[in-house]
Task: inverse folding
């Protein structure tokens, strides 16, 4: 590791940064509607098991590579497998998060717009509320301005570096996020009729447990922990050598699972209280919840505005913590491999994501007729990354650690030179999961997509 390379200051900082990378739109936006579509409690049980058995081994694999190499994704492959084709894995996991950042920042921009729109939902007509989302995303100026504002917020944090930027932001933001989601969940549980939403989330109906439910839960576990794109690897490269990879990984997984389930309790009880079907789909946050806030406004406009503001502020903060980790992957590559100053690297990544993001935003409006393999620009990039590049990156990371690296090197990194008793005790199990179980799970996801 380079002498002047920054590291995180403490285990708490590591866990908050990695949890920030994991906790994003996948938890507060994607998880509730996935649980709604795939049977509630039954889906959640499979999701928890998949997170521990499938996702955690990939998380450990990325962590081992990152801290062992002390480099970002491209440099890690060059150091641990010099002169081999594994460098293409490094290139893949530099490119993927930058592409994801481009369209992710468009959705992040939606949360910026909805944060300010929170002050209006209570006073709008039902027709205006239900039609607002479609009108907004299909317009030109406002979505691009919101996308730009979101990217500038991300760039501002990354510009501060590891300690003064990422660490300070996540150490402050993540505890606030948990407090906010608890407040929203408590309020949702207090609404008349919310009990049916709670029952939906805690009482499993295993008759709804189909193969598609299992693969969807596996995919959500993979997506939720921000795996396969090098963000965990990059953050692990900023770990100190005495940090415990097992403890940091389990801490991150706990916070990620806990937040996702809290998000479910923040959304589903309110959805049931409003008499809306739980399988409302991806629009449940940006279309269904504003409708609920509007209904609340007839009884208490001030309370409606307050809860709406807190909810969309939580979405914005969660989106920011994930987007920051995506940008950092590309910045680490440009600073470490190309010798750029951090300021220049942040500027270049921001410009790239801004231009591609504009095309993604316009794909809901003026460029809606542009199709790539039958999909709009936004949907094409989303499916390319979420369905193929992320799982492919995760599969290759597990193969690299499980079969390319020397078991003695993996053991040395995972156990801190054999000094951690608990890590020694579980090492063989973790290596077994990395070598066989996680790759099998990822291949199952690929097969389900093809079918």
Result:
């Amino acid at each position: 590791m380079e002498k002047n390379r920054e590291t995180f200051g403490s285990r708490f900082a590591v866990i908050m940064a990695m949890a920030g990378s994991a906790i994003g739109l996948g938890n507060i936006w994607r998880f509730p509607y996935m649980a709604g579509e795939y049977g509630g409690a039954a889906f959640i049980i499979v999701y928890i098991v998949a997170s521990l058995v499938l996702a955690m081994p990939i998380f450990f694999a990325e962590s081992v590579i990152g801290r062992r190499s002390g480099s970002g994704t491209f440099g890690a492959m060059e150091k641990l497998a010099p002169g081999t084709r594994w460098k293409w894995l490094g290139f893949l996991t530099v490119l993927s998060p930058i592409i994801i950042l481009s369209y992710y920042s468009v959705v992040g921009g939606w949360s910026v717009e909805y944060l300010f729109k929170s002050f209006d939902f209570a006073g709008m007509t039902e027709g205006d509320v239900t039609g607002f989302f479609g009108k907004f995303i299909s317009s030109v100026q406002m979505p691009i301005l919101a996308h730009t504002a979101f990217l500038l917020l991300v760039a501002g944090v990354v510009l501060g570096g590891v300690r003064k930027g990422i660490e300070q932001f996540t150490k402050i933001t993540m505890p606030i996020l948990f407090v906010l989601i608890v407040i929203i969940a408590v309020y949702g549980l207090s609404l008349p009729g919310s009990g049916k939403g709670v029952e939906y989330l805690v009482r499993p109906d295993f008759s709804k447990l189909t193969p598609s439910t299992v693969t969807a839960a596996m995919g959500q576990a993979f997506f939720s922990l921000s795996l396969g794109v090098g963000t965990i690897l990059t953050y692990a490269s900023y770990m100190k050598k005495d940090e415990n990879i097992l403890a940091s990984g389990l801490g991150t997984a706990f916070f990620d699972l806990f937040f996702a389930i809290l998000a479910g309790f923040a959304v589903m009880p309110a959805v049931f209280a409003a008499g809306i079907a739980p399988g409302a789909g991806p629009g449940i946050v940006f279309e269904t919840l504003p409708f609920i806030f509007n209904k609340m406004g007839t009884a208490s406009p001030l309370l409606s505005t307050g809860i709406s503001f807190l909810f969309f502020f939580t979405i914005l903060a969660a989106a920011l913590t994930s987007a920051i980790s995506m940008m950092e992957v590309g910045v680490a590559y440009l600073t470490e491999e190309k010798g750029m100053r951090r300021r220049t690297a942040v500027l270049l990544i921001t410009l790239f994501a801004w231009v591609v993001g504009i095309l993604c935003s316009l794909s809901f409006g003026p460029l809606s007729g542009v199709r790539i393999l039958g999909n709009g620009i936004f949907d094409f990039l989303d499916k390319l990354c979420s369905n193929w590049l992320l799982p492919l990156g995760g599969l290759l990371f597990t193969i690299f650690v499980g079969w390319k690296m020397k078991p003695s090197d993996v053991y040395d990194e995972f156990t801190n030179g054999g000094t951690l008793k608990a890590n020694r005790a579980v090492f063989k199990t973790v290596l077994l999961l990395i070598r066989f179980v996680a790759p099998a799970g990822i291949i199952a996801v690929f097969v389900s997509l093809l079918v």
